[in-house]
Amino acid sequence: MSTIREITSLPNWEHHVTSLPPSTLLVVSFHAPWAAPCAQMATVLSTLASEYPVTEPPSTSWVSINAEDLSDISETYNVTAVPFLVLIRNGQVLETVSGSSAVKVRNAIEAHAAKVGAPVLNGAATATDGHDGEVATEEDPEKKKEELFKRLGDLVKAAPVMLFMKGTPSEPKCGFSRQLVAILRENAVKYGFFNILADDEVRQGLKEFADWPTYPQLWVDGKLVGGLDIVKEELSNDADFFKA
């Protein structure tokens, strides 16, 4: 059965990628040690990998990457939050899955792993919905909303402090996001972030989930603090607001 290999350096990654035959599906899991959903996803992926036998040449290859330690690789694949899955074949990104939905991860891997000599999955044609290449199926709107809210519930707890912003800390796409990043840095706050411009489902859904219509949004311990004005107000009332 297949197992997951931890990539620990850029040369290690480059050697692994160049050693794979063009037909191999490369399953790349980006994680961070502080994010609890990543531990859950590691268990999911380990279980999935065990379902794929080791073949020659390999039909699949499974690797795990610390998104913070190997930030150059993370930036190459636009990793905006963890856990984050990238499926690659012959150097081409086939699909990405952001978040900790085991169902989405399994569906994506099964769809692409089956594409070599098997364009039809379980006798049913599949299609993409145009959003990160995810497999599209007809879904009850209420069920879809429930799944989205579950994903959002996991995302806001992905780190003790989570910033949902436009762009990334190194390249904010709006002035409010830039100011909030600066405040977090000034106060030496370690935080996770999510680029809402990279995922419209999260961008729109989080407004309803949080009952807060604008970005950036700062969450602490899974609870919404608010936007830039609220954070500034909290700091003016309590200089040690971020101390914990």
From TrEMBL:
One Pfam family from the record: Thioredoxin
InterPro entries: Glutaredoxin (IPR002109), GRX_PICOT-like (IPR033658), Monothiol_GRX-rel (IPR004480), Thioredoxin-like_sf (IPR036249), Thioredoxin_domain (IPR013766)
Keywords attached to this entry: Iron, Iron-sulfur, Metal-binding
Domain of life: Eukaryota
Family matches, as PROSITE patterns: GLUTAREDOXIN_2 (PS51354), THIOREDOXIN_2 (PS51352)
Gene3D superfamilies assigned: Glutaredoxin (3.40.30.10)
Keyword Iron (UniProt): yes
SUPFAM superfamilies the record matches: Thioredoxin-like (SSF52833)
PANTHER family the record matches: GLUTAREDOXIN FAMILY MEMBER (PTHR10293), GLUTAREDOXIN-3 (PTHR10293:SF73)
Identification of the protein by name: Glutaredoxin
Gene responsible for this protein: GRX3
